[in-house]
Design brief:
The protein has one domain. The chain starts with 9 loop residues before the first helix and ends with a strand. With 258 residues, the chain is mainly α. It is 57% helix and 4% strand. The model has no long low-confidence stretch (mean pLDDT 90). A two-stranded antiparallel ribbon has the order 1-2.
């Protein structure tokens, strides 16, 4: 039994918990941002000058994407439910759930890498769809899911659905996986290099790695998201970086060319 079982279904938690986690985690970063200049990958001035979309527009775009995600998630859970007559779904053992989560991570990474890369290579899709996400040249946490609605559907919503189906996880396991994926995605876009960040310890695909991709000189590199960098390394789109501490405070991720 889990703590929410008496109050809400696993399917409802799988649908709405990632949305709540997104705004709590991204909002936490956003509130801290003014006091964390010494850990920024870009200055506040760069953020104001380079980003071509307002925070209000970003918030509206994220809410639209999450509305679509919630709708698809509810339909997906409804179609795949294997609850018995009493409404109880048999849950696999914890080791099995862990394997399912790892499988889902690799499936999501594979889907997102190839769709993301194609959106850069196809000039029409980049100009009319994916460029909306790159209006945030200097990423920040709340903008992690700021995308064109079509991209949100193809990249994130379909990617999540395919990961869920291929891994065979239940709705209860999906709560953990999708919340983790949301936290990782927000962290990759937070624009901060914080000491002791656990994601920086365990994942090469991190805040600075993705920041390189958002810069004009790095848009053809570091497509991988949100977990591993394997496809970039295997297919020649991996761009390592040097993390340089700026004299005035903060850090800068610079391309490291061989």
């Amino acid at each position: 039994m889990v703590f929410w079982e008496e109050y809400v279904s696993d399917e409802a938690m799988g649908t709405f918990a990632p949305i709540v986690v997104y705004w709590l985690y991204a909002g936490f970063y956003q509130m801290l941002l003014p006091s964390l200049d010494n850990y920024r990958l870009h200055t506040k001035q760069e953020e104001d000058e380079k980003n071509s979309v307002s925070l209000a527009v970003v918030v509206k775009g994220v809410l639209l994407q999450q509305l679509v995600q919630a709708t698809v998630a509810q339909g997906l859970f409804l179609l795949t439910s294997n609850a018995d007559a009493s409404g109880i779904t048999s849950q696999p053992s914890i080791p099995v759930q862990l394997v399912q989560i790892v499988i889902a991570m690799f499936v999501m990474d594979t889907w997102q890498y190839f769709v993301h890369r194609y959106m850069h290579q196809n000039k029409y899709l980049y100009r009319h769809v994916h460029s909306q996400h790159h209006r945030l040249v200097v990423p920040y946490a709340i903008g992690a899911l700021y995308n064109h609605p079509l991209e949100g559907l193809l990249l994130d919503t379909f990617g999540g659905a395919i990961s869920f189906l291929v891994s065979g996880m239940t709705a209860r396991t999906a709560v953990i996986f999708f919340c983790f994926a949301v936290i990782k995605t927000v962290d990759d876009h937070c624009g901060l290099w914080l000491p002791g960040n656990i994601f920086h310890l365990f994942f090469q695909n991190n805040t600075a790695y993705h920041d390189i991709h958002h810069q004009l000189h790095g848009t053809k590199y570091n497509y991988s998201q949100p977990f591993f960098s394997m496809w970039d390394k295997l297919l020649g789109t991996h761009m390592p970086y040097n993390l340089i501490k700026r004299p005035e405070g903060g850090f800068e991720a610079r391309l490291k060319k061989d």
